[in-house]
Design goal:
Blueprint: H1 6-20, H2 52-73, H3 75-78, H4 116-125, H5 140-168, H6 175-186, H7 203-215, H8 219-222, E1 234-235, E2 241-242, H9 258-267, H10 282-294, E3 310-315, H11 326-329, E4 335-336, E5 340-341, E6 353-358, E7 362-370, E8 387-393, E9 410-416, H12 417-424, H13 429-432, H14 464-467, E10 481-486, E11 493-494, E12 503-509, E13 512-520, E14 536-544, E15 556-557, E16 561-565
Parallel strand pairs: 3-6, 3-16
Antiparallel strand pairs: 1-2, 4-6, 5-15, 6-7, 7-13, 8-9, 8-14, 9-10, 10-11, 12-13, 14-15, 14-16
Length: about 575
Amino acid sequence: MKPTRFMLSIVVASSLSCILGCSRSKPTPAAPATPPTQPSSATPTEPPGDQAAPRAASRDERLAAGKQMFNTHCASCHGETGDGNGLAARFLFPKPRNFREGKFRVVTTANRVPSDDDFMHVINRGMPGSAMFAFEHLSEGDRKSIVAYVRQLTRAGVEDRLRKASEDAGEQIDAAELADVVNRLTEPGKPIEVPAELAAIADESIARGRQLYLKQGCASCHGETGKGDGVQAQFDDDGSPTSPRDYTRGIFKGGREREQLFARTLLGMPGSPMPSSANLKPSEIADMVNYLQSLSDPSAQNKVQHKRTRLVAKRTAETLPGEIPDSVWQSAIATPIVVSPLWWRDYPEPDFHVQAIHDGRTIALRLTWHDESRNQQAVRPQDFEDQAAVQLFKGTREPFLGMGSTDGVVDLWVWNGGWQADLKEFADVDTTYPNMFVDEYQLEAPGNGDRPHATTRQNKTFLTGHAAGNLRSDPMRGLAGSANQAKGFGTLTLLPKPSQSVVAAGTWSDGRWSIVLRRSLEMSANAGLQLGAGDTVSIAFAIWDGAARDRDGQKLVSIWHDLDLER
C-alpha cells in the first residue's frame, strides 16, 4: 500500500481546528507559518557555523539540559512525559497542563501556538489562579532549556496522535509528510499585532467596553458585573471542570498588562471554554480591555504574583527570651510573601508576612496572616485544623519545591493548631461528643468525672498509634509544633521525639494568626539542618485554612525565597 496523505490531511484539519479554538464569529484566517528546515525541537536559533554537526550537538545538549531541569522542577506535576499526570497532579486544581495535547492558554501568535516568548512569560511569572508558580529565579539558560524540552514534548504528543490516526485507518505514513504536518501544528505563527497606542482608560471607553462585554455574551459566563457568577458547569477540552474568572478580583492567568488582556480577548484561551473574539476590531478590543481593568484594583495582581524575595534574619545582641516581646520583633522587617492555593478557590487575601531574628544560637520566625476563623480541632471528619509550615534547604542546587528530592533533603517546621489546643486538653471523641454511649470492655479503665473514657487512662495495647510511639497519636506529646524531613514527594517524615527540636506557639486575635517557630541553629547529626550566622538558605512557606477544609496537599504555598542569617 502506498503512503497516503488522505488521513493526515483529515487529522491536520481537525488538529488545526482544535488549536485555533472556537470564536464568536469567524476570525480572519492567519497566514500559515512557514515550516522550518529543522524540527522545532531546536529551540532558539543556533548561531551560524561552518558545519551542521556542531549545531545538532548543541541542540541535543540543550534538550538534555532541559530534560534534567524539567525532571527536577516540572515532572512532579506535569509528569515525566508531559502528559499532566505527575505524582502531585491529583492534589492540584486546575490540573497541570498536558503538554502533549499542544493546547496552551497563554498565547500571542496568530495560529495560537505559543512562541518561545509566551513560554518564557509563563515560566517567569507563573499563572495566577493555578498551581503554576514562577521560576524566574532559574538562570536564563535553564529556563530556555525547559522551553526547548516542553516544545519537544509537544511535538512528540502531536506526532503520536498523527501516527495512531493513520494506523487506525490502515494507512501507511509518509515520513516526510509526517514531519511537515508536525511542523505546521507545532511551529508558532506570526505574533498578533497589538496597536501601538491602545485607547486610554477613560469613562467613554469603559462604557463602550461594557456594551461590547454584554453584546459578545461575556456575561453568560463571567456574570453581569464580571464576578464570575454566570454558568458554572464548564469543562476544558480534556473534560476537566473549570469555572469562569472573577474579573473583580483582578487575577489574570496571563497577567494584567493591557497587551496580555488584548491577546486573551482576541485569541481566547485554547483548550478552555474561553472563546476568541476575533470578530472585534482592535479599537473595540481595547475598549473591552479598559472595561475589564476597571473592575478591579490595579494592585490586585501583585498580591498573587509570586516573586522571589530576600529575607534577613536580624541578629540581636541579647539572648532571645522564651517569649519574644514585640519590642524585639520590631527590629525585624515584616516581609510580605505571596501564598496561593494549590487547589484553587476564591479566597480572601491572607496578607501573609514573615519576620526572622536570631541571637547566634537560636533562630525564630514569626508568621502572621489573616484568617477569619480559628480552627483548632479535627476530631469530627468534617473539621480541619489551621496549620503553618516552613520548608528549608541548604545547598547549591535547589530541589523540587514540593518536599525536596533524594539528593536535596529539606527540613520542615510545622505548627499545628490542633496540637496547640491539645496542650490544654487532648481533644478526642469523648470531648467532642460528651454524651456518647460507650460499651465498657474487659480491659478498659473507665474513670469518674467529666471524662470517664479519657484516652490517657486506656491500655496502649489497644491504641496502636500511641503504642507504636507515633507522636500524632500520643495524648502526652506536649508539643504545638514538629520537626520533619523529606526527600521527595510523599516522603514527609515526622522525626522521633528525641529529635523534636522545633518550639512553636500561636495566638489568634482579631482575625489574624501570629505564629512563632524557633529552633537551635546547631543540631546533632540527622536531627535537622545545620544553620549558622552568615548562612543563606532557601525557604518556603505554607498555611492551611481549616474553615476552607484545607488538609495535606490542599493548602496555600509560596515559592522558594532566600533567608540570610545576619552575621
